[in-house]
Amino acid sequence: MFDEAKKPLLKVDNLKMHFPILRGIMKRQVGAVKAVDGISFEIMEGETLGLVGESGCGKSTAGRCVLRLYEVTDGKIELDGQDIATLTGGGLRAKRPEMQMIFQDPQASLNPRMTVGSIISEPLYEHRKMTKHERRARVDELMDAVGLARRFADRYPHEFSGGQRQRIGIARALALNPKFIVCDEPIAALDVSIQAQVVNLLEGLQEKLGLTYLFISHDLSMVRHLADRVAVMYLGKLVELGDSETLYTNPQHPYTQALLSAVPHPDPAKAGNIDRVILQGDVPSPANPPKGCNFCTRCPVAIDICHKDEPEWRQIGEGHFAACHLIE
User: β-strand 48-52 against 74-79: which pairing, if any?
Assistant: First the structure.
């Protein structure tokens, strides 16, 4: 759980990722898609931070920026005290083993021409000097850790189910003993019956290996179960962040309230007491966000100032942050 006595493993400050819009024969820049537009957060050692929001809000882009899979437009990304936003070449390569990613689609993220053993051992070829025997021993160890039989090492990805393929991806991510893992919707492409198994595996590995997760998802129920703290994202910006229990029982931002009101209730008899918030209109384009608050065009309680001034990201309670003019 979140513990203020622990030090942050990851600190993100004013992170921006703007993709240029180019037009004409000369490819002049005429604008930018503000996929991530100035977000700040911390993740403590051994903690899971959930990052939620609807499709297209910039969650996955934020995760890739944190791992420096993109050249970020602006901001600081401190991993274990070192700013990796400006690292290049050998410096960035040396930092790669400490941070890994589990991708959303296990079928698309695994090379169909490589055996499972080769896929899992590929990071060891790149970053470790090991003999063939040592690599095979490490692959066996990793397959045991994720619940795959060692004899499957010589098979190919197409011979496995979706859940088994995701376990292969998890084993590959663990190969270099990383400190920090971005889980980019790792259960979204799996059957419901398999999702709980993969989540339980991730929780078990975190406890055993002391891992720190950024868990990106749009499954709010699963995030509540898994995450210590939750950050809510809308149109490239964070709108609210707090510990899981506080955010789910006492959401303050109108967008968070709308999201949580849409979560199906396990007891239909009690669900009748929940006020559903139906948002009107479509999500604005990140290439042309509205003036003022990004959420003002769909917010059911927006007032004049919301359409003029951008709300300040501020603390509204113990460990609870939000950006809204209407929150006292």
Answer: unpaired
